[in-house]
Amino acid sequence: MKLKRPIVFMDLETTGLSLSEDRIIEISMIKQFPDGDNCSYYKRINPCGRQIAEEAFGKHGIKLEDLEDCPPFSDVSKEIYEFIKDCDFGGYNCKRFDIPILIEEFLRVNIPINIKTFKIVDVFKILSKAEPRTLEGTYQRFFGEPLEGAHNAETDIKATIKILEKMESIYSIPDSVEEIDKFAFDEDELDLENKLKRRKDGSIIFNFGKYKDKTIQEVYQTDRNYFDWIINKSEMTLYTKSIFRNIIKLILNNK
Question: Which one, of 96, 155, 169, lies nearest residue 128 by Cα?
């Protein structure tokens, strides 16, 4: 990759997945220079009382007590800014998460960052373009030839079966339908639109909108009109709406 100016590859660990509410607790960066040199930066950061979501802890294993003696973002913001100043950015799915949440942290301490001043090398997006996950793209990649008659229903389903058989021969995937279902889908998903999730403690939380990560009981107690909007006015599927109706019945029956 030819560089006109330095590029900083970064990865962040955070208290959760909300760009507006969650905080950075670990940042690792490697800066590559056009002449081939590189340098690195690493810091753990105290989120100043912000709780670490159970799902986030399950991925990075960092506890609040591990961060007690670490500086808050405000104390290290200037040195992080100096490290990335006048650089481009790189990472894995960084445009969707790492870069936006870093910009939020900077804005909280009044350091303005203009996204138009840097370019982004997102390996996830590059992979999606280089190896498209469309049926035709996957068929071409696996069998080295175009899918003739694509978008004919019978052709497409036969190609799908052929791709699955090929995947079974080259990947370590389960060999039963039950195990494949568990392998491919998150067990915490409760509906086909992924609007609700179940925590490990059994509680059900919203996975979208203004009440994301709030439990259904919390929201029902404070804003019952939100449930009415979901059921009667939102564009969610009938299946998802039926799940919300059943949830309301369960809440009322348990009172």
Answer: 96
- Residue 144 CB partners (closer than 8 Å, separation 6+): none
7-126: which CATH topology?
A: Nucleotidyltransferase; domain 5 (3.30.420)
First to last CA, the chain: 62
Q: Which token pair is 154? A: 């019978």
Whose CA is closest to 218, among 188, 240, 251?
251
Residues forming beta bridges with residue 91, ordered by sequence position? 122
- Report the C-alpha gap between 65 and 228 in whole angstroms: 41
For the chain, give every domain's residue range: 7-126, 196-253
Cα gap 185→92, rounded to integer Å: 21
Q: How far apart are CA 150 and CA 157, in angstroms?
A: 10
* pLDDT tens digit sequence for 184-227: 877 777 887 889 988 888 889 999 889 998 999 999 999 999 99
Distance CA 3, CA 193 (A): 41
Q: From the DSSP assignment, how many helices (H) and strands (E) are in the chain? A: 10, 7
What would the pLDDT profile of 108-163 be if each residue is shown by its tens digit? Answer: 999 988 888 899 999 999 998 888 889 999 999 999 999 999 889 999 999 999 99
- Dist CA 211 CA 224 (whole Å): 12
Distance CA(143)–CA(166), nearest Å, equals 9
DSSP 213: T
Q: pTM for the full model?
A: 0.71
In the chain, at which residue ranges do the beta strands (DSSP E only) sit? 7-14, 24-32, 38-44, 88-91, 120-122, 196-198, 204-206
> Token pair 């709030």 is at which residue?
214
Angle, to 10 degrees, between the axis of helix 98-108 and the axis of helix 73-84? 120
